[in-house]
Amino acid sequence: MTLPQEQVMEAFESRAERRADRRAFFTAAVGAAAVGSAFAYSNPAAAQAAVTDADVLNFALNLEYLEAQFYLFAVNGAGLPANLTTSGSGAAGGTVTGGALVNFTSDPLTGAYAREIAADEQAHVAFLRTALGSAAVAMPNINISGDANGPFTAAARAAGVVPAGGVFNPYSSPENFLLGAFIFEDVGVTAYKGAAPLLTNKTFLEAAAGILAVEAYHAAIVRTTLYAKGIPALIDATEQISNARDTLDGTVTDDLIRGIGADADQGIRPTGSGSTLTSNIAPLNSNGLAYSRTTGQVLKIVYLNAGTTTMGGFFPNGVNGTIRSTT
Fold first, then answer.
1. How much of the chain exceeds pLDDT 70, in percent?
2. Which Pfam family, any one, appears in the UniProt record (predicted)?
3. Selection from 132, 57, 124 nearest residue 322 by Cα
4. What residues does each domain of the chain span?
């Protein structure tokens, strides 16, 4: 599906000196194999497993591998360098299926945003790998194909963005690229927020909060750019995608204090009209809080499977590390 192209909103103010210190933050970290202490983690399915801070950071690293590969291919036509996909002990990383260069000629501002986000995501990969040291997992096999059998098409069909038999290629236009980015960015924000209580080391918690803030900036850029285009089909697509994510991540007990809800995911459809028109750039609950997802809920979305599984969707053989099951 190729959506109409219209002028994007004027560029956000550039952020100065945003990357220089990212990789140095963990310089004094202890060996990651011994990072953190074990603790109990419970999810809505009531399954429990003892995990460490290193397990949580490796879970985040898998998601950063995925985001980095998507954005880098979109802006460069190539992904992460091989030295950023190996394990901490040097084992080779997995393969990437799909990925393509997006032609941003008609929409140079979205291209500028995409290049910035791509650099940020690569920095996150390097940052987490430095933190984990020899315990860093290798990049798993990743599928970011935009063809008929790829996960983007599967997700778009399930959401009703394209009809059964239709194809959704996020590399075919700036608008489709933004919708592909919309799938990832909102999930990344909820993943980092949900993982925050799992970290016991305050240094790692502060660093994770820093990454969470950047992912939230990214999500806001994507959501604002989509909204500013004023194209009804784009706005409808975000609602369809958000509803599909809510279906995948299952029913949970609402907790407005912690930012958890069974129907918490939101698209960008505004409310009101005229002088009361209100956008929905920041998807928050009634307390003004962003919402959280457990690791299992996040995996259900990226695996494109609401059931119990350890693989599928964007990770055809699953993520690497201790946390890899939807339960």
1. 85
2. Ferritin_2
3. 57
4. 51-302
